[in-house]
Design a protein that fits this description.
single chain; 87 residues; mainly alpha; 2 domains
Length: 87
Protein backbone atom coordinates (compact mmCIF):
# COMPACT_ATOMS: atom_id res chain seq x y z
CA UNK A 1 0.00 0.00 0.00
CA UNK A 2 2.94 2.30 0.63
CA UNK A 3 4.34 2.06 -2.87
CA UNK A 4 0.99 1.80 -4.64
CA UNK A 5 -0.67 4.81 -3.03
CA UNK A 6 2.40 6.72 -1.86
CA UNK A 7 1.47 6.61 1.84
CA UNK A 8 3.82 6.78 4.78
CA UNK A 9 4.44 3.61 6.75
CA UNK A 10 2.32 4.81 9.66
CA UNK A 11 -0.67 5.64 7.47
CA UNK A 12 -0.36 2.38 5.53
CA UNK A 13 -0.55 0.45 8.81
CA UNK A 14 -3.42 2.48 10.16
CA UNK A 15 -5.74 1.77 7.20
CA UNK A 16 -6.22 -1.99 7.89
CA UNK A 17 -6.02 -1.30 11.67
CA UNK A 18 -2.76 -3.16 12.02
CA UNK A 19 -0.14 -2.37 14.64
CA UNK A 20 3.11 -0.88 13.42
CA UNK A 21 5.14 -3.73 14.92
CA UNK A 22 3.13 -6.37 12.98
CA UNK A 23 4.94 -5.42 9.78
CA UNK A 24 8.29 -6.55 11.22
CA UNK A 25 7.03 -9.77 12.85
CA UNK A 26 8.78 -12.98 11.82
CA UNK A 27 7.58 -16.26 13.30
CA UNK A 28 10.20 -18.53 14.86
CA UNK A 29 10.51 -22.19 13.99
CA UNK A 30 10.39 -24.35 17.11
CA UNK A 31 12.92 -27.16 17.34
CA UNK A 32 11.43 -29.91 19.48
CA UNK A 33 14.15 -32.44 18.69
CA UNK A 34 16.22 -32.30 21.92
CA UNK A 35 13.29 -32.65 24.36
CA UNK A 36 11.77 -35.30 22.11
CA UNK A 37 14.88 -37.47 22.32
CA UNK A 38 15.21 -36.86 26.08
CA UNK A 39 11.61 -37.99 26.67
CA UNK A 40 12.04 -41.10 24.54
CA UNK A 41 15.31 -42.05 26.24
CA UNK A 42 13.82 -41.66 29.73
CA UNK A 43 10.63 -43.56 28.95
CA UNK A 44 12.55 -46.54 27.55
CA UNK A 45 13.93 -47.23 31.01
CA UNK A 46 10.93 -45.95 32.98
CA UNK A 47 7.73 -46.63 31.02
CA UNK A 48 5.42 -46.04 33.99
CA UNK A 49 6.54 -42.49 34.71
CA UNK A 50 4.08 -39.71 34.07
CA UNK A 51 4.88 -36.12 33.21
CA UNK A 52 5.77 -35.08 36.77
CA UNK A 53 8.49 -37.69 37.27
CA UNK A 54 9.66 -37.35 33.69
CA UNK A 55 10.05 -33.59 34.05
CA UNK A 56 11.77 -33.74 37.44
CA UNK A 57 14.23 -36.48 36.56
CA UNK A 58 14.99 -36.03 32.87
CA UNK A 59 13.90 -32.67 31.49
CA UNK A 60 14.55 -30.09 34.22
CA UNK A 61 18.20 -31.13 34.77
CA UNK A 62 18.83 -30.61 31.03
CA UNK A 63 17.38 -27.11 31.20
CA UNK A 64 14.06 -27.57 29.39
CA UNK A 65 11.16 -25.44 30.60
CA UNK A 66 7.87 -26.87 31.78
CA UNK A 67 5.71 -25.33 29.04
CA UNK A 68 7.95 -26.51 26.23
CA UNK A 69 8.26 -29.97 27.78
CA UNK A 70 4.49 -30.28 28.18
CA UNK A 71 3.94 -29.21 24.56
CA UNK A 72 6.27 -32.00 23.34
CA UNK A 73 4.74 -34.50 25.80
CA UNK A 74 1.24 -33.78 24.49
CA UNK A 75 2.53 -33.84 20.91
CA UNK A 76 3.71 -37.41 21.49
CA UNK A 77 0.21 -38.25 22.80
CA UNK A 78 1.55 -39.44 26.14
CA UNK A 79 -0.99 -37.53 28.24
CA UNK A 80 -3.50 -40.24 28.97
CA UNK A 81 -6.46 -39.63 31.26
CA UNK A 82 -6.48 -41.36 34.60
CA UNK A 83 -9.23 -43.84 35.34
CA UNK A 84 -11.88 -42.64 37.68
CA UNK A 85 -12.84 -44.43 40.87
CA UNK A 86 -15.57 -47.04 40.78
CA UNK A 87 -18.30 -46.16 43.21
Amino acid sequence: MQTHRGLSARRADRAPRRSRSARHYRSRVRDNGPPFTAIEAHLKGNPGHGFGLLFDQALRPQGFGKTRSWRVYVGLRLNLLRRGKRR
